[in-house]
Write a structure and sequence with these properties.
The complex is a heterodimer. Chain A is built from 3 helices and no strands. Chain A is mainly α. Chain A starts with a helix and ends with a helix. Chain B is of the alpha/beta class. Chain B has 2 domains: 121 residues, no CATH class; 119 residues, no CATH class. The longest helix of chain B has 16 residues. Classes of the chains: A mainly alpha, B alpha/beta. Chains A and B meet through helix 1 and helix 3 of A and helix 6, helix 8 and helix 10 of B.
């Protein structure tokens, strides 16, 4: 799916696939925070800004 | 269309090998799919470069008459469709006799077809497969150019479902593109780009590159290029090509993890 997004014109870093059990609360929090920072650095999705 | 083909099919009827033949007929100048029910009927058999999803019609026939052996006219792409549909249990090879024709060099180039002739080829000169240029062209664009390209193209979509309706590989009883919670009703263009990217993901390991989707699209969206890319991605990651004798699609396997 990352390859498809890249072909489509979105940075593949905007998609993250992670396997987290409902009992892994700490891991979930860490992954979400990391990902939020990562996507924040990429900036607003160009789809929101460019869509007619 | 050669007499050779007609003769071959007449013999299939005479030998009792088929009860009917699914081919193309000249109806007052229009070439349309037709189910020929006997050898005499075959006088109307005629076709040039016209393409129809005959596999799709065959699936409907099979559901209605699962015990009947039917002959079918196939091109290279149709054969890929048949091979893949066997793997997905939509058709049974014992009930089908394929009559193959090869596509001309011009047709192969128009389609950028990887194999413009079926294995069971009765008529036509076999020309080599053509390399994929349209995907490479998009790959060479800058990421933001690609985005504009696709958003623009998808914005012309009128949600006619032509691409899905004509696709020989689309046989889901419930199509996710019709899920109201997923794709809002009454909105044109449908959720951009979710609608088309979803369809693209569903075509992974399934699209046999017949190109009928792009031909059916009234908005001239380069769907084939998108699905060709998805097929390339699957080939890169799983060494799997739909429609060949590569075993089952990795997305068609349930159970323990397949061997690497």
């Amino acid at each position: 799916m990352k390859d498809l997004l890249e072909f489509f014109g979105l940075e593949p870093e905007r998609l993250r696939l992670e396997w987290i059990s409902s009992s892994e609360g700490q891991k979930f929090a860490r992954v979400i925070n990391e990902f939020a920072d990562q996507v924040g650095e990429l900036g607003a999705s160009p789809i929101i800004t460019k869509r007619p | 269309m050669s007499e050779k083909i007609k003769q071959y099919i007449v013999e299939l009827f005479q030998q009792g090998k088929i009860k009917a033949f699914l081919g193309l007929k000249d109806e007052s100048g229009h070439i349309v799919p037709h189910l020929f029910s006997n050898a005499e009927d075959l006088d109307g058999l005629n076709f040039g470069t016209e393409r129809y999803p005959l596999n799709k019609i065959l699936i409907q026939l099979y559901k209605r008459y699962p015990d009947v052996t039917i002959g079918i006219l196939i091109r290279g792409c149709d054969e890929r469709g048949l091979k893949e549909l066997y793997k997905w249990n939509q058709l049974q090879p014992e009930k089908i006799i394929a009559v193959g024709i090869a596509c001309s060099k011009e047709q192969a180039e128009y389609c950028e077809c990887s194999k413009p002739y079926p294995d069971t080829c009765i008529s036509g000169e076999q020309t080599p497969g053509v390399d994929n240029k349209t995907v490479k062209k998009i790959d060479s664009l800058e990421i933001s150019e690609r985005l504009n390209y696709w958003l623009d193209n998808f914005s012309r979509c009128i949600k006619c479902y032509g691409c899905r309706d004509i696709c020989p590989m689309c046989f889901c009883n419930e199509c996710s593109l019709e899920e109201v919670e997923f794709i809002e009703r009454g909105k044109i263009p449908p959720e951009n780009p979710i609608f088309h990217l979803s369809r693209a993901v569903h075509m992974a390991g399934r699209c046999i590159d017949c190109g009928l989707c792009e031909e059916a699209c009234p908005s001239i969206i380069p769907l084939r290029t998108l699905y060709k890319k998805v097929t390339d991605i699957i080939e890169d990651h799983f060494s799997y090509r739909p429609g060949y004798d590569d075993g089952k699609s990795p997305l068609n396997i349930l159970g323990p993890r397949p061997e690497e």
